[in-house]
Amino acid sequence: MPVTEADTEPGTEAVPASAAAPTDRRPVAAAFRALIALAALTGVALDMIDSGDLGRLFSYFTIQSNILLAIACAWSAHRAWTGRPALSPRITGGALLYISITGLVFHFVLSNDASGFAMTSQRTPLESIANQLLHTATPLAAALDWLLLTAPGGFLLRHAGQWLAYPFLYLPFALIRGALLDPGAEGRYPYPFLDVDLHGYTGIAGNAVVFGLAFYGLALALVLLDRVRPHQRGLGNRISPTGSSRLK
Q: How many structural domains compose the chain?
């Protein structure tokens, strides 16, 4: 039996479907995150064009972290453009941590001759462009998105430990992959600090502890900074509320 206006109790009027549609669109955040995803995928594509060993290429933490960032940013851009709730801070914070690790380890360890783990070699023009996109542009852009286009306070202390699951799983992945390849194979281990031939498993364990503590410290720093950084004023609907998603 159809419900008439007289049958409807006050305050319970039916809401039109159009009125229930999300309206909090964030076009600036959507555009910026789409550009971050594009930069990450462009860098990966350029490396793929210039690489003769895709298996080796995709074993690098750099490539994996940029792909994860591209997925998170593309997903977040879609939600911002359509006015949907922001992604869970656990997801966005993890992507931020991983790409921050990529940028910091590259600039302070792999490009630093004094570190003892430097990976300096001649690069083709495509490799140089990809290198800047994957190690410099995307980490800086992800940090700017977090600082300027995301509301603070979404990161929780427990997230810091949860985010480390991927870096810790990367360690056995790299070691098992290297063990399955022939000794002396080029790129057998993706990074010098994971090279069993150079350091042995005892040395690798020590390196893992040092890097693991550093990554956890970085994760805790992100949580702390996220709690104390101020709200950006005057950005209106460009701010994405980090705690609005049901994903926790």
A: 1
Structural domain range at position 135: 25-181+189-234
The one-digit pLDDT tens for each residue of the chain (248 residues) are 444 444 444 544 454 444 444 558 999 999 999 999 999 999 999 999 988 899 999 999 999 999 999 999 999 999 999 999 999 999 999 999 999 999 999 999 999 999 999 987 778 888 999 999 999 999 999 999 999 999 999 999 999 999 999 999 999 999 999 999 998 888 899 999 999 999 999 999 999 999 999 999 999 999 999 999 987 664 444 445 544 444 33
Residue 140 near residue 132, CB atoms below 8 Å: no
Give CA 153 to chain center in angstroms: 18
In a domain, 60, yes or no: yes
State CA 20 to chain mean position distance: 32
Is 246 contained in some domain? no
